[in-house]
Give the backbone structure.
Amino acid sequence: MSLNPEVIIDLAALKHNASLVAQAAPYSKRLAVIKADAYGHGMLAVAQALSMVDGFAVARLDEAIMLRKAGIKKVVLVLSGFMSQEQVDQFARYDLDAVVHSEYQVGLLNSSHLSTPVSVWLKINTGMNRLGVDQSSVTRVYQALQLSGKVRLPMKLMTHLSCADDMASVSTEQQINCFDHCISGLSGEQSIANSAGLLGWKNAQRHWVRPGIMLYGGSPFQGAKASDEGLQAVMTFKSQVISLKTIKKGSFVGYGATWQAEKTRLIATVGVGYGDGYPRHASVGTPVLVAGQKATLVGRVSMDSISVDVSQCHHIQIGDEVVLWGVGLPIEEVAEKSNTISYDLMCGITSRVTRVIKEVDNGEQN
Ligand SMILES: *Cc1c(COP(=O)(O)O)cnc(C)c1O
């Protein structure tokens, strides 16, 4: 009996979700977003399993170099680009694609001594106001990049949507229009859509789509379930019941004695806590699956354990499997009760949690 919490990573579910990207955006090339250790799923295992995509996007140069050192040959786009001359050299050395989002990066390219040009995705700020050159400087930066002699031409053109997860928002159409206005007359392949963009806004599917969360089986839409889109959970976070006790009416549970039993209750202590990445802000009533049965969190989340009211469950025993999220318990339900989003929960799994990769069965079609 293993008493450590684990995450099971189901590569068949990952491939299934990737096939839904292809169905939803059949005319676009796919850049799988695998930043932050593939949203906590394990970057290399995910990259190696996603043989059907056209490339990968990561946030930082180090992540990209790790992919190259592991033998990944496809396009690898670094979403933050470069910030120093040394980094520019590494883009050339490892044949990485760079997002150019700010004018200082043009200066870095111009003063470099590259023998081979770098592939550049010029990012335009269309309303997110995070990374991207402003509308008024697009043409100037584009021309400067074109004349630099350090850029493989034609460069690519991209933007990022701030509200694509909200189908009622007017921002997305405005951002798409702004993008089209900025790039009119400029040649180069285009990319706008993250998961929500590609599923919800057909006009955002250009030459390249950039799905992240949907690959992992998380819903990109507010208040939605991933299964509505046919997506399957890739990560299942599990632990076990390590203690069971019956407490009397009026007894308290956990730090701060914040939860009190209104009647006699059977409380299971589960070996998982915020030290493993279970959210400390999960509120009383957060669903937990104990031996396949729905139960609810009570009291505060500790570093190494949580308390679950299993009074309504049948035949609970020490060692029973507990699912915190994943197959059988949508991560969105836990995220909502914890006042956060699925992305945050996936990325938050800590290094002491064992990761078990479930390979695709040989008989299975994919
Ligand atoms: C993270 C990220 C994505 C992927 O977003 P999802 O919502 O996970 O699909 C796409 N593009 C950029 C620029 C990103 O930073």
